[in-house]
Write a structure and sequence with these properties.
The chain is of the alpha/beta class and 234 residues long. It contains eight helices and nine strands.
Length: 234
C-alpha cells in the first residue's frame, strides 16, 4: 500500500445519497464497505466528516442567526454524522472510536492526540467529530489539522467529483482534469480544492491532498494502492 496512515475527509452532503437532506443508510453502508477494503489491508484510518447534510452555519447566519451559534450547531451535526458512520463501520465488523473537539463524554471520547494515535496503532478507525471545536473554522481545516497532528501520510478528500479541474466540470464542458498539481499552482490559478486556511496548513506541513470520487466503487482502495485516481496536490 502506498499510504500507511490516512486522513479521509468526507462531506456531510455525501451521506445524503439521492435525498435532499439527512442520512441515506444505503450510502452509509457503501462507504463502510469501501473503508473495510483498505482496513483489511492494514491501512490506519482516521476520518473527518462534515455536517452540511444536517446544518450549515453560514446558511443559518445569512438568515439572521448569529454565525458563532450557527457554527456550533454545525459542529453538533458532524457529531451526528460521526455516530452514524461509526455505527455503519461497526456493523461491518470494524473497531472504531469517535473523538470530539467538544466534550460530549456520554457518546464520545474527548479528542486527545496521543490516545487517537494509540487507537490507530491498535488498528481501530478513529472518527474526529465537532470540527476543531472553534467557530469560523471548516471541517476541511479540522481534517488537515488532525492529519498533521496524527502524522498522516496524506489527506484523502472523497467528493462527488473525480479530481481538480481547470474549472467547475458541472458548469463548464471544456474543463480538464489535473492528474497532479503543486500547492503553488493551485493558489496561482485560483482553483478551489479546500478553503484557504486548510490549504495553507496542508502546504506548510507538506501534507499532500488527493481529491477523488468516493462514490465510485474501489476508488478508495485504488488511491491507497497508489493508482493515479483523482488529482494529487503536493
Amino acid at each position: 500500500m502506498k499510504y500507511k496512515r490516512i486522513l479521509l475527509k468526507l462531506s456531510g452532503e455525501a451521506l445524503m445519497g439521492e435525498n435532499q437532506y439527512g442520512i441515506d443508510p444505503q450510502r452509509l453502508s457503501e462507504y463502510a464497505q469501501e473503508i473495510k477494503k483498505i482496513h483489511a489491508l492494514g491501512v490506519e484510518i482516521a476520518i473527518v466528516i462534515g455536517g452540511g447534510n444536517i446544518f450549515r452555519g453560514v446558511a443559518g447566519a445569512s438568515k439572521g442567526m448569529d454565525r458563532v451559534q450557527g457554527d456550533y450547531m454545525g459542529m453538533l451535526a458532524t457529531v451526528i454524522n460521526g455516530m452514524a458512520l461509526q455505527g455503519a463501520l461497526e456493523d461491518a465488523g470494524m473497531l472504531t472510536r469517535l473523538q470530539t473537539a467538544l466534550k460530549i463524554e456520554e457518546i464520545a471520547e474527548p479528542y486527545i492526540k496521543r490516545r487517537a494515535v494509540r487507537h490507530l496503532e491498535k488498528n481501530r478507525i478513529v472518527i474526529f467529530g465537532a470540527g476543531t471545536g472553534n467557530p469560523y473554522f471548516t471541517t476541511d481545516t479540522a481534517a488537515v489539522l488532525r492529519g498533521v497532528e496524527i502524522n498522516a501520510d496524506v489527506i484523502l478528500k472523497g467528493t462527488r467529483v473525480d479530481g481538480v479541474y481547470t474549472a467547475d466540470p458541472e458548469k463548464d464542458a471544456n474543463a480538464t482534469k489535473y492528474e497532479s498539481i503543486t500547492f503553488t499552482d493551485v493558489l496561482a490559478k485560483g482553483l478551489n480544492v479546500m478553503d484557504t486556511t486548510a490549504f495553507t496548513l496542508s502546504q506548510e506541513n507538506k501534507l499532500p491532498i488527493v481529491v477523488f470520487d468516493m462514490n465510485k466503487e474501489n476508488n478508495l482502495l485504488k488511491v491507497c494502492q497508489g493508482e493515479n485516481i483523482g488529482t494529487t496536490v503536493y
